[in-house]
């Protein structure tokens, strides 16, 4: 009976959401239908034509109403410059369309995890598109609006009204201090909640959850979870396998940013690739140091064009992230998404090393380590910060593991700390590069 009442509650919330949208003109539903149609076959003739029309309309609008783009009249899309956060922030008014009044717009701000806090405005239609994108990609993992959703993140300054939160059935979980007591209480709450539910969380918070379960040898969790989405950070193999084992639920990674929205997401039946949101964005991969495209399969900077933000168009925007795009089953997908370009690491010969190479080495010691951070501090100097549960007797072996990857002449030191500090976004960087001598 309790399960039935929860299902009825979810249905009522879902009907309520779409009823409100209909009263307001049905804009979200129209966007949702368009996203669904395009994403069914993003490279069909119909989808490509639609995307081209959206791009033409955006370029026409930008040339006519945005000062920065006014000088590029009649210029082909591929001739437009690559832009970044610093350029936009230093020329803020030049990127604002004169078609909109500020009071009509929604303000979006990022935490500044790259070192550059970022502010921009989005128009109401872009906001509706973001909501539609969110609903579509949630639906892909079995979540429908009105279902119970546990959202693990840093909730400082969150503005969602309690009425809207109740209507959408979102449980806010603030991960600012994930102590053992906090994790225990969270697991107990998830057990008590018998409703089918989904979880979206910063990847490192899921890792903390799994390590707690490992250390305490917990069995038979019996938590009714439909699926889990990891966002904001790379999801390592340890966390992925542990989640699937302990919760008997699929887990996928999402690639998004605060200034644009959901750019790509894995599928529950195929979580090897990130399926790009071709309905709302154009994604390109550019050379690490030159503004030219790379070949399929080569690592490069992720460049994204937002097709719907008309108030402050971000055309060919350098996200600061790096990745690899390949053609798989007639679809261009991201086969790799890594962290910020500014935090790439290099071996002692100066060759680029994927940050993903660090995770398997550290995963061998997961049962002994609460947190870690790998930092390149010089061309051949590296620092490993460890927050440990108890005495760590494998320091020599750990250094040997990393020398095999970085070079036998690598100078590696280990520092024991009580905490790896969080960024203002709630993330904890596992891989960093503080060496100013390397041009990254």
From TrEMBL:
InterPro entries: ANL_N_sf, CapK_Type1_Caps_Biosynth
Keywords of this entry: Ligase
Keyword Ligase: yes
Regions crossing the membrane: none
UniProt signal peptide: none
GO function terms (MF aspect): ligase activity
Protein name in UniProt: Phenylacetate-CoA ligase
Species of origin: Arenibacter nanhaiticus
Source species taxonomy: Bacteria, Pseudomonadati, Bacteroidota, Flavobacteriia, Flavobacteriales
């Amino acid at each position: 009976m309790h399960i039935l009442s929860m299902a009825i509650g979810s249905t009522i919330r879902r009907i309520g959401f779409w009823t409100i949208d209909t009263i307001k003109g049905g804009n979200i539903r129209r966007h949702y239908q368009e996203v669904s149609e395009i994403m069914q076959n993003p490279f069909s003739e119909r989808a490509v034509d639609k995307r081209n029309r959206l791009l033409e309309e955006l370029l026409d609008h930008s040339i006519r109403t945005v000062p920065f783009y006014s000088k590029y009249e009649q210029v082909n899309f591929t001739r437009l410059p690559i832009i970044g956060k610093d350029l936009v922030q230093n020329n803020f008014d030049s990127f604002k369309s004169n078609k909109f009044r500020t009071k009509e717009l929604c303000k979006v701000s990022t935490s500044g995890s790259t070192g550059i806090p970022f502010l921009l405005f989005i128009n109401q239609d872009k906001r509706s598109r973001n909501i539609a994108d969110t609903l579509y990609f949630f639906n892909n993992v079995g979540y429908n609006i009105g279902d119970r959703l546990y959202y693990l993140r840093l909730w400082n300054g969150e503005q969602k009204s309690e009425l809207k939160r109740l209507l959408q059935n979102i449980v806010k979980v603030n991960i600012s201090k994930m102590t053992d007591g906090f994790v225990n209480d969270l697991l107990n709450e998830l057990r008590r909640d018998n409703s089918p539910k989904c979880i979206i969380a910063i990847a490192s918070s899921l890792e903390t959850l799994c390590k707690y379960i490992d250390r305490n040898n917990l069995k038979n969790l019996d938590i009714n979870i439909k699926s889990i989405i990891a966002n904001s950070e790379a999801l390592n193999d340890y966390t992925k396998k542990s989640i699937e084992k302990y919760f008997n639920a699929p887990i996928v990674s999402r690639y998004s940013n605060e200034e644009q929205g959901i750019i790509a997401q894995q599928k529950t039946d195929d979580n090897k690739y990130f399926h790009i949101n071709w309905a709302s964005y154009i994604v390109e991969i550019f050379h690490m140091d030159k503004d030219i495209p790379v070949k399929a399969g080569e690592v490069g900077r992720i460049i994204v064009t937002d097709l719907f933000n008309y108030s402050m168009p971000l055309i060919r925007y350098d996200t600061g992230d790096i990745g690899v795009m390949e053609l798989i089953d007639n679809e261009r997908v991201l086969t790799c998404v890594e962290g910020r370009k500014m935090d790439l690491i290099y071996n002692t010969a100066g060759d680029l090393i994927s940050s993903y190479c660090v995770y398997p080495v550290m995963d061998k010691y997961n049962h002994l380590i609460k947190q870690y951070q790998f930092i390149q501090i010089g061309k051949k100097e590296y620092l490993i910060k460890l927050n440990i549960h108890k005495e760590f007797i494998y320091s020599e072996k750990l250094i040997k593991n990393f020398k095999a990857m970085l070079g036998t002449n690598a100078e590696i030191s280990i520092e024991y700390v009580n905490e790896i500090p969080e960024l203002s976004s709630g993330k904890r960087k596992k891989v960093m590069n503080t060496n100013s001598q390397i041009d990254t």
